[in-house]
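Lab notebook: predicted structure, single chain.

Context: the supervisor wants predicted structures on file for every construct in the current expression panel, including those that have not yet been purified. This is the next one on the list. No modifications to the sequence; it matches the entry in the shared construct table.
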Amino acid sequence: MHERLDADGTVPASRVGRYAWDSGTGEVWWSDAMFAIYGFAPREVVPSRELVAAHRHPDDVAQLDALVGALHGGTGDYSCWHRIVDARGRTRHVVSVGSVTTGDDGVSRVEGYVTDVSEPQRTHVESHVHESLARFRESAAVIEQAKGALMALRGIDADAAFEVLRETSTAEHVKLRDVARAVLGQRVDAGR
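Prediction complete. Output recorded below exactly as produced.
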C-alpha cells in the first residue's frame, strides 16, 4: 500500500508531528500526530525526554547524543534523519527539524517537527532492490552465456571460464558483465 499525499502534495498530517520542550520546566508537549508516530494513542503516555530516548533506534543513539550535545546551551536550527522504534516495535524512519531558542532567563526551548518518512523510504528501497535484482539477473545470464562460449571455444570447465572473465575484467578495469558482453559479441562476429 502506498501512502497518498494530501491534495496540496504534502505528506498527510498524521505523519507530521509537532513537539516542544522547555528545559526550565522539563515539560514536553506533543501533537496527536507525534503520539501516532511513536505508536501511541493521543495522550496514552506522558511525553518526556526519557520516553523519546527509550525509543531511539540502537544504531542511531550515538548520532542523536552528538546532536543533543551540540544543541545544549546553544541556539539555532537543526535537522536530523534517524530511526525510532515505536511502541509496537516497528522501526520508523523519521526526519526531525526544529530550532533551539534561549530566553533572557537562560532557559532553552526546543520546538520542531518530526516527519515519518517510513513509507517513502520503504518504497525507495523496494524500487532499488527490484532494479538491482533485474540488473543482476541480466548480468548473470550474460555471464553464464559467455562462460558457455568460452567453455566451447577453449575446451575448459565452468570455473576456468569464469576465471578468464574475471582476470580480463580486473586487467582491463571493465565490469565483468561488459567483458561477458564483449565475449558474446566476439563469438557472434566470429561465427559469421
